[in-house]
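Q: I'm writing up a methods section and want to include an example of the input and output format. Could you take the sequence below and give the corresponding predicted structure tokens, formatted cleanly so I can copy it straight into the document?
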Amino acid sequence: MVNPAMIFKIKSMWDEFARNHPKFPRFLLAASNQAMEEGTVIELIIRHPDGNTLASNVKLTASDMELINQLKQMGKNGMQ
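A: Here is the clean output for your methods example:
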């Protein structure tokens, strides 16, 4: 069972993150509004201050799309 206090805490932390980095939530919204489909590639690059870089990518599968659609539905139901 999900702890309501933890949800409230995470929501508060997300709100602060969004205030600190306003472009990132807009990017996520734009990405979610685009028709992602099976075969779409999502890449993530992390650049450390010391110059080191980590990179990875995933090619979305049908089960990944199920997860993404469930998360979108949760967001529409007020879990944003």
